[in-house]
Amino acid sequence: MADNTRGLVIAVDGTAASGKGTLAKHLARTYNLAHLDTGSLYRGVSIRLLRQGVKREIDPQLAALEASRIEIADLNDPALRSEDTSAMASLVASLPDVRAALMEYQRQFANQPPDDHKGAVLDGRDIGTIILPNADFKFFCDAAPEIRAERRYKELLLAGETAIYADVLDAIKERDHRDMTRQVAPLRPADDAIHIDTGEFTVDEMVARAVQIIASPD
Ligand code: DC
């Protein structure tokens, strides 16, 4: 199997809280791939802006500058998953100069994976369509907004944040809308992506399905 996984590059896209990150993490473990959660890049840029007192009015040049400064340490910031960061990330992600500044980082990660890994799995919104159109496998995860809101709500409570389910649901719907309708790199499945409705499966079933597809692609 080891030789079959040499240079394997997998794109996992999907809606917010669809389970794409969970799928990507499991695939990384299964095939010994480096994993990049690309949403954390946009979140990292947002934290940098929030810490400078930026609110909803974002200066695109400043945002692009901060995007060009993103480094590994930004991706481990404890504030990465907060609702403030999520809301700002969705705004930041609609700025073309920010996306351009982060594109190279993502491609470099896939082409030269860190820590001696031979391949990589990236999860995000535009990995299969824009960042890695030649990925070996592309998955697109989605589930009903109510299911995804429930998951995000529980995650927030577990992280010690106060959250109201109805607000989380509204925020998810707003983010979906913005991600799908933005001018640049809108969220959509690549034509050759394999769809996984993560509301229908347990994590183990979802991973097993993806592994089966990778093992016998036709
Ligand atoms: O997956 P996430 O919730 O961590 O993503 C945070 C935001 O970044 C979200 O609004 C979508 C955006 N994003 C994007 O536009 N493109 C990506 N490849 C990853 C995330």
Given the C-alpha coordinates, what overall shape results? globular
Topology as a string of helices (H) and strands (E): EHEHHHHEHEHHEH
Return the average pLDDT rounded to an integer: 92
Q: Biggest sheet: strands, sense, closure?
A: 5 strands, parallel
* Helix/sheet category: alpha/beta
Distance between the termini: 18 Å
Note the beta-strand portion: 5-15%
Give the tally of β-strands.
5
> What's the CATH first level?
Alpha Beta
Query: What is the fourth-level CATH superfamily?
Result: P-loop containing nucleotide triphosphate hydrolases
What percent of residues adopt helix (DSSP H or I)? 40-55%
What's the gyration radius in Å? 17 Å
Number of helices: 9
* Bound ligands, named by name, code or SMILES: 2'-deoxycytidine-5'-monophosphate
In CATH, the architecture is 3-Layer(aba) Sandwich
| Strand line-up across the major sheet | 2-3-1-4-5
Brief summary of the model shown:
The chain is 50% helix and 11% strand.
Can you tell me about this structure?
This protein has 218 residues and is an alpha/beta fold. The chain has a single domain (8-215), classed as Rossmann fold (3-Layer(aba) Sandwich). The protein has nine helices and five strands, in the order βαβααααβαβααβα. It has a five-stranded parallel β-sheet with strand order 2-3-1-4-5, sandwiched between helices. Helix 7 packs across helix 8. The two termini are 18 Å apart. The model has no long low-confidence stretch (mean pLDDT 92).
